[in-house]
């Protein structure tokens, strides 16, 4: 009896051999914005639609100056490519790839954002860039990676008019709008006043102003003071934003960044990592073994298959997933029975099911087993 192995599709994306040694940027435009967001963020696990943007659009050039694509391969950003939003201008191709002793002085006087104003009240914002869209996740958690950078590091730590950004999510199970740009394992928003290096704090005349949210997380701060290919004096490490979701429900996500007060000569930016926008609830890793060899077929009376289940979200919580068993082979007749549920205990990341074909001397060539996460 022969069972077809669960097929594994391996895809390799080949990039051009151009090697970027600094931060490279491209302006977006109203006609390219949707395709850029879908190319960078959309996946089989997250459906994105109703994309919109508010920022600095020049109708003469048909370019949006404060959102676009970036490639930072071999530079110091920490993310290879994705979407960048800034309180200033991108100035392609290397406007943000200049040495850090340059100032991000773009004097952008477009309006601020009322939601960001509420975060730095009584100050207000200027030069806001706001990207938003609706999304439908298939998993119980959404996550993506990002880096926040600012030219106000390190000498303006704890200033009342500091740069501000937020990722607000709204939808089922969420009260109002929820900012998910938080310091890991805290409820503290990420920014100049919460992620910084206390060894640099002595250079800030505002350190005792009472505006500091925290000085306790220098491990998430990166000093770019001597950087020759990154204009910002400081940034965060690569951080992950995440939020619990209800599978197949509709949510709204709002990325916003702006200058605080009337300070436009030291603008911030947030870099969103391509292909990190994900809501994969569980992953199946198939493996067919017999005689010490890996094969693409499972043979009766010889070998077995293992299905390794790996979950990546809400690991601290117990969770039960439904399995749908189908295919032309009969569960429990042609092979050892597979349960219709798999349960993870709190803290458990992996579980394994073993499939062993039943030796019955009947010709059952090319039968299949399909395991689907319900």
Structural features, described:
It is a single chain. By secondary structure, this protein is mainly beta. The protein has two helices and 24 strands. The protein has helices spanning 33-41, 114-119, and strands at 2-4, 24-28, 46-54, 57-58, 63-71, 81-86, 125-137, 141-150, 164-170, 178-179, 221-223, 234-236, 239-244, 251-260, 268-273, 282-290, 293-294, 297-299, 304-311, 319-326, 341-344, 350-355, 367-368, 370-373. The strands form five sheets. Strands 2, 4, 5, 6, 8, 11, 12, 13 and 15 form a nine-stranded antiparallel β-sheet that branches. A five-stranded antiparallel β-sheet has the order 3-7-14-9-10. A hairpin with a 2-residue loop joins strand 16 and strand 17 (293-294). It is elongated. The relative contact order is 0.19. The model is unreliable at 1-20 (pLDDT under 50).
